């Protein structure tokens, strides 16, 4: 009989009555519970609970019964307010709330709105010892779904109060309790700042100077530093087109302004900033403007603006994020900020800034005899000074660099003069046997360049020139060595284990185009070390080595890896899935939450862009070959580190290809950067990847979401590949470039 009762209880549980989605969120928030806490208690994913609260999905047994029980208990503690009563919902990270900030007294006078705001900012600056009086603003009528509260006492511009001891209950730094950023918009004539977590602030500022002042005094925006000796992130304001119009800025830039990357210095808003004693960086007022006053001691007074309609959020990296409504955009940028860092510009700029934030160039010394501390070099960082352009190894710098100014004007440097470590762009014709197979399947390495940076030893300072050196695989540097004798037909795949391969079907690991070297060439340490690993002797004739070295990029890799994995987990792709479940989970994963899909794309772009910035080229500005350009003045202009990461990434891929060939007899048909294409009779990677009892080939390709593992990139018919190559009359046409969707838009020119 008890079994029958259990069955009846199960039926009742399967139809347990649940309140509407909005009420579920209200009840959770009322008790101060986070989504993560509920998910942990019910043993489900965070995204699952989020789906229940948004109404996108409904819980099923056995979780449904437990979830209904939780909501019933919460409803007893926090009964819903009567329909005719305007009872504010509790303030919570997931419940929107509107804060009405008190206007500065100058704004209440009979000045024009812009003049009043500028006067407020200037008065507070000219009288730093006198706190600005605060006028309580009347509470606004609550808008549906929002709570109205009056802001606390304002702070003078440029002066931050000491943070209260400890942190808020949820671990938030009280100085930044409203999050790292806000999207400023205008709705029904009111200026609103949409923050992360659904929070909305009323903005009283009537001009850009007043907006900056309000942000620093009232908004409580920003982000704590990522490293002990580092600096807190400045607050970020994202201005919508409506906000631009309200504050006297153009909705879009003219062609001339786009080319210059800024609005003219004579623009009225810039004049307002100057009168209020605010400054702009050398880049001026552009898509990513920084407005600041010089720091006083350790205190900073700086606000960054992001203007999507001026192309601040490049669609190649952020997709359609710039077109999102304010609350949704705040969510996308907020997730990115919390998991990576507050954006400092493009994803490339942010990737580079993240390196510095995790390894600040200086730190405070121990107290001297007088008890004073001084700034000193922070071990493991790149320091605060850039390498003198004339001290760079000629082989490591790009064409046009000052150290190459004495070369003949039209001289083309060859492999023996130039370090050329780049990603793969290689393809070959298919064999007769491969043409009998039905499909071409592409696999792609997750976060390949991030994985290449993980654990990599790189130089921290200047290089030392050495002649006839003994190669040391642990010493970062550039080596001039002849690797043309390495024969891929016979290589080591393990210690003292040689294998015979068809070398004609493999790309060379030493060149991006996969061609066998013809003689001496410059290589980064990982490339030369791989030649030794394959079983061949190496004898460099010259080298530039860096005695001071370390794993500078480890923290950077860890931060970006965690951001990527956490966001993918929110999209239903966990790190512990079986190969079959992983492939299923990856199918259409971005459609489950398109906003988080944008975050994934931005994280990936941060990796590649940050590494690319290590060798930033001249960007106009009247530059001429042989002259220094702006990027050379940065300590983070390090083409040697970029080369080492790309070298290791390419070698990591080649090692897997060799292991796969040795074990299965299958060879790649095309490789583009981190994508590899194989011929197969099936459409899935599982049709040619050697899994045994769920375990992959050791050292070979493994399906999974972690950086360095692979996912399915795309599948096309073999006939498609042959038709494309015949159409363009190119037997070595790189099919990896188009394997994802099969669309070929133009002749493959390698760009």
Commentary on this structure:
With 751 residues, this protein is α+β, with helices and mostly antiparallel strands. The chain is 31% helix and 14% strand. The strands form 6 sheets. The protein has a 9-stranded mixed beta sheet with strand order 2-1-5-4-3-6-9-8-7. α6 links the parallel β1 (98-100) and β2. α16 (525-533) packs parallel to α20. The longest helix is centred in the last third of the chain and has 26 residues, at 639-664. It is globular. The N and C termini lie far apart (73 Å). The model is unreliable at 84-165 and 747-751 (pLDDT under 50).
Secondary structure topology:
Layout (H helix, E strand, L loop, with lengths): L1 H13 L6 H10 L4 H8 L3 H9 L8 H15 L20 E3 L12 H14 L21 E3 L30 E7 L2 E6 L4 E3 L5 H12 L16 E4 L1 H6 L8 H6 L7 H8 L3 E2 L9 E7 L2 E8 L8 H4 L7 H14 L7 H12 L3 E3 L10 E3 L47 E3 L4 H4 L3 E7 L2 H6 L4 E2 L4 E4 L9 E6 L7 E5 L2 E4 L19 E5 H9 L8 E4 L3 E2 L3 H17 L8 H8 L7 H20 L25 H26 L5 E3 L2 E6 L29 E8 H10 L24
Parallel strand pairs: 1-2, 1-5, 3-6, 6-9
Antiparallel strand pairs: 3-4, 4-5, 7-8, 8-9, 10-11, 12-22, 13-23, 13-24, 14-21, 15-20, 16-19, 16-20, 17-18, 22-23
Helix pairs in contact: 3-4, 6-7, 12-19, 13-19, 16-20, 17-19
